[in-house]
Amino acid sequence: MKSILSMLLAAIVFLLGCESAPDLSVNIPDDNTQESLSKMIGYELIPLPGKSPEWIDSVFTMSKEIDGSVGGRMMMGKYFISEYGDSIIIESDLRIPPGAFEGTEIITITVDDDFAYMHFYPEMIFEDTLKFSSKFQGLHLDEYPTGTIDFVFIADDGSIELIKKNGIQVVVPQGLVRVLNAKLVHFSRYGWIRKSGADQIYPDINYY
Question: Fewest Cβ atoms closer than 10 Å to its Cβ: which of 20, 106, 121, 134?
Answer without folding.
Answer: 20
